[in-house]
Amino acid sequence: MDDKLMLMIPGPTPVPEQALRALAKHPIGHRSKEFEAVIAEVTENLKWLHQTQSDVLMLTASGTGAMEAGIINFLSPGDRVIVASNGKFGERWAFVAKAYNLTVDPITAEWGQALDPEQFRQKLEADTNKEIKAVIVTHSETSTGVVNDLETINRHVKAHGEALIIVDAVTSLGAMNVPFDAWGLDVVASGSQKGFMIPPGLGFVAVSAKAWSAYKTAKLPKFYLDLGKYKKATDKNSSPFTPPINLIFALQTTLRMMKQEGLENIFKRHERQMKATRAAATAMGLKLYAPDHAAARSITAVVTSDAEQIRSIVKKRFDIVMAGGQDHLKGEIFRIGHLGFVSDRDILTAIAALEAALQELGKATAQVGAGVAAAAKILGES
């Protein structure tokens, strides 16, 4: 059946009809008074979502572009930076840092395991000469469905006194609590096609006063990603370069939706759907990749050698798209996204399709309907 595609991946995520209609509006001039009013509202609501009074800047870029901007605006060539990695995206930030001739000091964990905050404490406390200028960490590791203990890691960074914390919150912002001001975060990057519930194309960077102080002496090259330009323009309800006008119309719509739902309800919904998905997978006899204590609210990774066959059946028979594994996990896991504009009904539909795929492959090891029943029980508790 045409036009029935259902995205259950970590991004792009489903887009509400209200936002689709906003995308279809006739563009207006990006230097007009009318668009200034849109920027003003969107900026205010971005600060609400980030739980901050600091700057939140919009870039025409992906989440990777936002993270690159978050790295290069506050550092100088040769600076020593801790780059934490326990998945594909942690590895990416190390590549970005090395591309800009930063001195990378790695902290790693096996894919599927959470980073150990104690390693950060030890390395930061040992830096008595205050040579470490930043700690770069992925909050929710999209490739594995693991969430890292950002709050504890950040406490160790704050105790260091000198280092900034630069956070990839691409699949946690809008799904999990990331209180920028309360935790004293310095740089937080995210992307529009995740919890923001609109298509790809916008990146967001929240910046603290401490980070702006570092910006004044940072010497890495930048032009389009120079966040100083974005701050200057945003303070005037404008943009330094031509923005994606209709994407911002859509963002205006989804931020209003999010405010109406409320932050606590958003966080509870994502947690409920995560628990339901994990309970369903377990009830079907499937193995979960991330441990319970480090399970991301936005995506669940499932271990099976039949990952690609399962994904293929779910897509061909039910028009539901689930994500595969990356790098060495390709064919070893599949990932179910429950991020952004995902309802409880979507979770039950995806689980039912997954059960049907297991039956078709002759891999079902549990009673038919066990997964749906387990998910329905969790969803019905709230």
UniProtKB/TrEMBL annotation:
The UniProt entry, under InterPro entries, shows: Aminotrans_V_dom (IPR000192), Aminotrans_V_PyrdxlP_BS (IPR020578), PyrdxlP-dep_Trfase (IPR015424), PyrdxlP-dep_Trfase_major (IPR015421), PyrdxlP-dep_Trfase_small (IPR015422), SP_NH2Trfase/AEP_transaminase (IPR024169)
Q: Quote the Gene3D superfamilies the UniProt record gives.
A: Aspartate Aminotransferase, domain 1 (3.90.1150.10), Type I PLP-dependent aspartate aminotransferase-like (Major domain) (3.40.640.10)
The keyword Transferase belongs to this UniProt entry's keyword annotation: yes
Ranges for the Aminotransferase class V domain? 26-325
Name the Pfam families for this protein: Aminotran_5 (PF00266)
* SUPFAM superfamilies for the chain: PLP-dependent transferases
Do the record's keywords include Iron?
A: no
Domain of life the protein comes from: Bacteria
GO molecular function, a single term: transaminase activity
Cofactor(s) for this UniProt protein: pyridoxal 5'-phosphate
UniProt keyword list: Aminotransferase, Pyridoxal phosphate, Transferase
Which family, according to the similarity comment?
Belongs to the class-V pyridoxal-phosphate-dependent aminotransferase family.
State the PANTHER family in the record.
ALANINE--GLYOXYLATE AMINOTRANSFERASE, AMINOTRANSFERASE CLASS V
Its name, as the record gives it, is Alanine--glyoxylate aminotransferase family protein
